[in-house]
Design a protein that fits this description.
The chain is of the alpha/beta class and 374 residues long. It is built from twelve helices and 16 strands. Helix 3 packs parallel to helix 4.
Length: 374
């Protein structure tokens, strides 16, 4: 392993510390190296304000002069919450910058590298690390390329594709788990990496779920908890409502009771009327709202019907399904995606870039991107 490879690995490892702590900014790591030795390290967090390059340069001090900066993303050349990083890099006397990728923001892409080159700083693009760097910030990259949040459909399923048995809610509340503790802990990591999470009112009524990020890790802002509820059936004493701290939004329709809306809003719940042409809640409108408010990622954890609606509407970008070594069978057990479905195999929703993740010795997860015609 070359030293340069090690330094880029270090920078990516540092950047990963910012995931979940930087949105709507990208996670970035930086390493300053002089004469083969690391003299400065840094990563960005929203609370810390300073970008990774600035943190690393400050740690390096005078040792940055004539050094090489390894950074996971093209340094910024524009004013945001902080001054441009390129100006600080030039002022510090950095001789060379090595980065895997340009900033995916079309308004600034390439400008940081151009500024550095014009100031006499050598720039090297480490193409071999581009995929790793992009995956680290996949929600940010997706948002910059499409203008939409990255939507991930998550589910826990049996080997025969079921998510619930017919008598699971016979006691008034769903009991038991399909997957084990390790898989459920991993779900909290996915939640931590998400800006928002969405479910349907059926799931809330069945489980009285919290939908919180229980990873214990710092966040740049609270996880926005969203419920699709066309009739505003969400009980005022539901756990979601009692734990609301400006982080719960209910999406409803014009058919919902004004009195119920007022009751929920009095408890701090945000109520939005986003109605599709068929009179149901509009998932596409939800993602548009999230985009306007700079939520870069949305995870859907819902029931069979909402899952199908999300897939059929085209809002889902990828899936993350946890598989348990179980089979429920039967025609009444709920499939991961219910609804009308597709009538012919040739019309099936298809996926690409499929990855298999080993969760435990007996459980695994499938991550894949939805094929889209655009």
């Amino acid at each position: 392993m070359s030293n340069e490879t090690q330094f880029l690995d270090d920078a990516l490892e540092l950047a990963a510390k910012g995931v979940g702590r930087v949105s709507p900014n990208p996670a970035v790591g930086a390493v300053v190296v002089r004469e083969g030795a690391v003299v400065g390290r840094g990563f960005h967090t929203w609370a810390g304000v300073k970008h990774a390059e600035i943190v690393a340069l400050e740690e390096a001090g005078d040792r940055a002069r004539g050094a090489t900066l390894y950074v996971t993303l093209e340094p910024c050349s524009h004013h945001g919450r902080t001054p441009p990083c390129t100006g600080a890099i030039v002022a510090a006397g950095i001789q060379k910058v090595v980065a895997p990728m340009e900033d995916p923001n079309p308004q600034v892409r390439g400008q940081g590298f151009a500024h550095l080159k014009s100031a006499g700083v050598e720039v090297e693009i480490a193409d071999a690390y581009a995929a790793c760097a992009a995956r680290l910030n996949e929600a940010f990259v997706h948002f910059m390329q499409t203008g939409r949040p990255l939507v991930t459909l998550k589910a826990a399923v049996t080997l025969d594709g079921k998510i619930a048995a017919p008598d699971d809610g016979a006691s008034g509340r769903t009991v038991g788990w399909l997957t084990g503790e390790t898989a459920r802990a991993h779900v909290q990591t996915l939640r931590h990496h998400s800006d928002a999470i969405l479910t349907g009112i059926g799931t809330v009524l069945a489980d009285d779920c919290r939908l919180t990020d229980r990873s214990g890790e710092e966040r740049s802002r609270p996880l926005l908890r969203i419920v699709l509820d066309s009739q505003l059936r969400l009980p005022p004493d539901a756990t979601l409502v009692s734990t609301c701290n400006g982080d719960v939004m209910v999406v409803t329709t014009s058919a919902a009771s004004a009195e119920r809306r007022k009751r929920l809003e009095s408890k701090g719940v945000r109520v939005e009327v986003l109605e599709a042409a068929d009179g149901r809640t509009d998932l596409a409108a939800v993602t548009e709202l999230l985009a306007r408010e700079k939520y870069l990622s949305l995870m859907i954890e819902a029931g069979s019907r909402v899952n199908w609606t999300a897939l059929e509407s085209g809002v889902v970008d990828k899936i993350f399904f946890y598989y348990a070594p179980k089979i429920l069978g039967g025609l009444q057990s709920l499939p991961v995606a219910g609804g009308a479905g597709r009538r012919r195999r040739v019309d099936a929703i298809q996926f690409h870039d499929v990855q298999i993740h080993r969760i435990t010795a007996s459980e695994f997860a499938v991550e894949a991107w939805v094929d889209k015609p655009f």
